[in-house]
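README: folding subset

This subset contains proteins for which both the sequence and a predicted structure token string are available. Records are stored as plain text. Below is the entry for Fungal lipase-type domain-containing protein (339 residues), shown exactly as it appears on disk.
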Amino acid sequence: MLKSLIFSTIALLAVCQALQTCEECLNSGNHYCADTKMCNSPVCLNSITHILNCPRAPNVTYDDNEARTKWLPLFGASATSAQMAQKCFDNNWPTMKLSKRILVNCSDPSPILPLTQCAMITAVDTTQKVLVMSFRATNTGTQLEEEFLNYFVAKKAFFDSGYIFEFFYDAYLALWKGGLEAEMRNLKYRYPDYEVWVTGHSLGAALASVGASWVVKTGLFKPEQMKLLTAGQPRTGDYAYSNWHQNTFAYSFRIVHAHDMVPHLPFQYELVDHDKMYHHRTEIWYNNDMSIGSSYHVCQEADGFYCSNQNADLSWNDHTHYYNTDLDGYGDKGCPKAN
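--- output ---
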């Protein structure tokens, strides 16, 4: 009788553990198994130990066609002159009109490096009621060097929601003070109910993440007005920042192309970085050439060991090619439509 009671109790405990959600499991001090979908599974190849990575489907649907026809030209428009930026829109999104191009010094203060600049554009579509903030990618070797060096230097508090890398913080603040704040306040006054689309590739992706978060934190726009889509985004903030971000924005997609090396930087478990930086949701991973019709994975974890983090062999070429388009010079050509 006693033995039967013991076995029944053990079985009941096992069932209770199996029924626990990932969050409940981790809050009770245990690990959640991504493979078996069980709490404290005795055999598990992929354990989840951070609530940030508990499996979760996005609240909105990712649209591959929209990404190719609208978001991709926004990458190109931010990386070229005002004239060619408008041509990017004319070729792909004719009702979108360039509002402002902002170019500022965003150099590391070190006197040993030459000056570097950050750029971005704003645009307005009064037909579809959309405002745009699109940030330019890294555009010189010096700027790339500054970013890499900064990974080992310092972080800055992002309001009351964790920390982000100092370079990203300072670069965004330079743009904000260099005309972006006045521009967005003016656009908000004229178009208070419009959606705000925020985007960028590479460095521009990190600045887009910060920018979308910034205008919400300052109360300029509501989270439900925001749409964020980035490509090749490096890790931008710490656990608290990433957790706040993914619990704030319903529409937030990080596009990762196959073996793109930049989304893996800085390394999540860097020995010299005790803060450990994390991506926010939701990763969309294309493990192919991203040509039209290519399959993609909507990743359930924010920054676990599924999807692109499975890759040990990393590629710079995959970083510069998104949606089967070479982003180097794409904007300068007027963002020609893909055949």
